[in-house]
Amino acid sequence: MAKFLVQNGAPLYGVVQISGAKNAVLPEMASAILTKEKCKISDVPNLIDVKVMKEILVSLGGSINQIEENVLEINMEELSKHEASYEHTSKMRASFLLMGPLLARAGYAKVYMPGGCTIGERPIGLHLKGFEALGAEIIAKENYIEATAPENGLKGAAIYLDFPSVGATENIMMAAVLANGTTYIENAAQEPEIVDLANFMNKMGAKIKGAGTDTIKIEGVKSLHGAAHNVIPDRIETATFMLAAAITRGEVMIKNVVPDHVKPITAKLRECGVTVEITEEGLYVNAKERKLIATDLKTLPYPGFPTDIQSPFMSFLTTVEGSSTVIETVFENRFMHVAELNRMGANIKTEGNRAIVQGGKKLEGSSVIATDLRAGAAMVLAGLVASGTTEVSQIYHVERGYEKFVEKFRALGANILRIED
Ligand code: EPZ
Predict the structure, then answer these.
(1) Using CA of residue 394, residue 395, residue 397, residue 400, what is the dihedral sign?
(2) Distance of CA 7 from the midpoint of ligand 1 (Å)
(3) Among 42, 165, 192, 416, which residue is least crowded by beta carbons within 10 Å?
(4) How many CA atoms lie within 13 A of 213 on its CB side?
């Protein structure tokens, strides 16, 4: 098993380039199923999750040409299978995003249930509610789901999402683009990844309006054609490096950023006394020699504070004098990193979905685990400022979602090594 060894070091300094967004490219790769023509996607991050999605598309009969390191050409003309295997779905929850495009293109989809994970039960009821509203028949077995469209195809419908689920919004949007008639998704998720997926499908000839608002209108069309698309920068990776600069009291220029996508983190870091400036070159973050103050935060669906940055921000708050309250409203169990931070000497108490951080005490290096993708990054951030060495294990989580993670941190002066056990 691979591990990260992280040592206390100098404040981070320098320039880092953000990669394409994991949570945009995965649904966009799945949406290539909707056309028989070739799709070219650029700024694709080189991640384990992207590799799994490529394997799945090939297993369905597709072919993928890796034109350059970060450029894929996907050809789904030969769609010979309509089933995502257990082997793949168990590796990556996002495989469930194949259901919508398979249902739209082939009228049938069989996808194994995406397991829950450490951060929550991760139900899929809203996805299925949307497919049924479009006329699909759903058969839920103990470990897989089958969806079948009516003979004459899916039919547009008005669908209200009880929770603005990112995955459900994406899956329903992809199912509806080829349906007969118009579909409205109400209380839709508004994340930038939804907008990027809609932009890509509109380039393919879809008629989607309102992505990025709480109501998305999709007018069904007969077919989609191929298209080329550049994936948006990863706002969660951006926020991770903003916090790396803040926690080490460093000075970092972050390039290839959409400042609007990280507004909540910019606002919160400024509240704490960190300088964040939007410049021509990128996002400039400076926390050198600053007396920082504590702040409170509450995670919410976009445009609220992103749940994926809750744990990295908590690592930062353990280094700031004072008491901070962190409330997690999106996932029911996303405080697994608290015990790991407390092992490093942090003083965090949790009550339900609320964590109280008493910050300011120096952290001590320890052996900790990455309990989810973002908590893994949070442990590395803590290790950068803890005394001694911090050993982070179960780092496959981290490598699923961050391209060139170690290289980018080392280029900023971080003492981090990846070792095989
Ligand atoms: C996406 O997951 C992201 N993953 C997650 O990022 C992110 O944390 C999450 O959105 C929230 O922003 C990808 O895009 C691949 P949800 P998703 O459906 O779509 C409840 C990362 O680190 N819900 O918006 O699974 C659910 O229980 C990952 O990159 C239902 O109740 O998130 C949860 O409490 C982690 N019924 C809440 O919605 C449903 O049918 C948010 O889930 C679906 C979801």
Answers:
(1) negative
(2) 33
(3) 42
(4) 7
